[in-house]
Amino acid sequence: MHEDGASADLKLRLYALSTCAFCRRAIEFLKSHGLAFEYIYLDKIDVEVKRALKAELKEQYQNLPVFPVLTISDKQAISGFREGEYLKALGLDSQGTA
Predict the structure, then answer these.
(1) Residue 44: its pLDDT value, please?
(2) How far is Cα 45 from Cα 78, in angstroms, rounded to an integer?
(3) Where are the domains of the chain?
(4) Tens digit of pLDDT for each residue in 32-77?
(5) Are the CB atoms for 90 and 33 separated by under 8 Å?
(6) Residue 94 has what pLDDT?
(7) What is the CATH number of domain 2-89?
(8) What pTM, to 2 d.p., does this model score?
């Protein structure tokens, strides 16, 4: 799914689980900061596709995914939701402005 907004030339993709509270918080964080992003609920897609995506994340970013996983321009991935880490990685200050 896609959420419209500004993203300062960043391609943001969030891999999440529909039942995960931290995943919901990450989605709300991105929305509240007006950022454009895509998100995929891995528990809502085919099992084989899910396995392939998890393997790809692990290979590309050298870590076992802990959800949510935010990828930034296909260069960086953040596992889990920690607001301070999201702010820093997205170039936002503590008030959420660039």
Answers:
(1) 94
(2) 21
(3) 2-89
(4) 999 999 999 999 999 999 999 888 888 888 766 689 999 999 889 9
(5) yes
(6) 66
(7) 3.40.30.10
(8) 0.84
